Amino acid sequence: xxxxxxxxxxxxxxxxxxxxxxxxxxxxxxxxxxxxxxxxxxxxxxxxxxxxxxxxxxxxxxxxxxxxxxxxxxxxxxxxxxxxxxxxxxxxxxxxxxxxxxxxxxxxxxxxxxxxxxxxxxxxxxxxxxxxxxxxxxxxxxxxxxxxxxxxxxxxxxxxxxxxxxxxxxxxxxxxxxxxxxxxxxxxxxxxxxxxxxxxxxxxxxxxxxxxxxxxxxxxxxxxxxxxxxxxxxxxxxxxxxxxxxxxxxxxxxxxxxxxxxxxxxxxxxxxxxxxxxxxxxxxxxxxxxxxxxxxxxxxxxxxxxxxxxxxxxxxxxxxxxxxxxxxxxxxxxxxxxxxxxxxxxxxxxxxxxxxxxxxxxxxxxxxxxxxxxxxxxxxxxxxxxxxxxxxxxxx
Length: 396
Description:
With 396 residues, the protein is α+β, with helices and mostly antiparallel strands. It has twelve helices and eleven strands. The strands form three sheets. The protein has a seven-stranded antiparallel beta sheet. Strands 2-11 form a two-stranded parallel ribbon.
């Protein structure tokens, strides 16, 4: 296979400044077609309608995870396409074309981090081919436990392509009318929110519940970020409303990190933080206020943090992030480094607990408390007052 990975459209064939990070793995390649055919921002119409309508799923846990067939069926009316399909075929029977989108099992797609690791439905564009090879684009952008997914141009031998697990789903799109330009919401009432959150709170398998909740909060957050981007693109609100929406989206992003951290702790046999579920209910309710018209950060307490504690934290964080310890000690936030993400945050927490022999208070593990050395130090000192003694070692 000949795969060229890039983090921007350059060299991949994406539209200029294409916001790949806003879309899920089916939306993103539909958005590529929309922006090619209708211009910059056209793909944002996929976020025109903000929905929260969870449906029953496996293990008794309701889910907002979209059905790819429904996404393909709804896309033409939203994006200004015509479509032939979707159809199910064996990969060997597919001939590429300029609007051909394929949905297949990511487990068998060698250019994504999920290959050989996880079964899930994933889209790509199969655009060109010759007697020997088939190639195209996958614009997906995400962080995964197995590495970063970034937009890429892929090429497979026909024999490799034919061996993809099947049948696969394909839809052939073509340009038609202009994309949707009006925003709307379809948000469930409080009774549905309460039932959704309760299902996750009362599920007996806490690891399974938090694993699914991590996906749920990721999907919910990305949907709200996409809706906000659509509102900005269509000039749908004034400056004050835009600021409120931006703050709300940041709160959702923080919840996604907090939930992932909670899942990892339960997975390792540690106490489950109590914060994510009440915060989820709060943010779902606030969606109505923000789009239809938690635990906060540790407050600064002034100077005086023990230097040994600050150095110990900076040393671990710098090691994980691959940067100079001095930058973090000077006050640079961890979030300002390109290598920082939710996975690195969890790794920093786990290394600190192991190396220092202490444990964070699970309810203090909200992302706002873990983004710079001094705030982490205050959280750790509150959680483990013996920390200074542990860092300094026994008195001489």
